[in-house]
Amino acid sequence: MTDEALKTTPLAAAHVEAGARMVPFAGYSMPVQYKDGVLKEHLWTREHAGLFDVSHMGQARLRGVSPLSAFEEITPGDFIGLKPGKQRYSVLLNKKGGVIDDLMAARPDDDGLFVVVNGACKDNDFKVIDKELAGQVTIERLENRALLAIQGPEAAAVIGRHLPAALRMVFMDSRAMPGFGTNILISRSGYTGEDGYEISVPNHQAEAIWNLLLEDERVRPIGLGARDSLRLEAGLPLYGHDVDETVSPIEADLAFAVSMKRRDARDFPGASRIAQELADGPSRKRVGLKVLEGAPAREGAEIADGSGAVVGVVTSGGFSPSLGYPIAMGFVPPALAALGTQLKVIVRGKPQGAEVVRMPFVPTRYVRKV
Amino acid sequence: MRFTKDHEWVALDGDVATIGITAYAAEQLGDVVFVETPEVGKTVKAGDGLAVVESVKAASDVYAPVSGEVVEANAELGDAPETVNAVPESGGWFAKLKIADKGQYDDLMDRDAYETYLGTL
Question: How far is A33 from chain B, CA to nearest CA, in Å?
Answer without folding.
Answer: 9
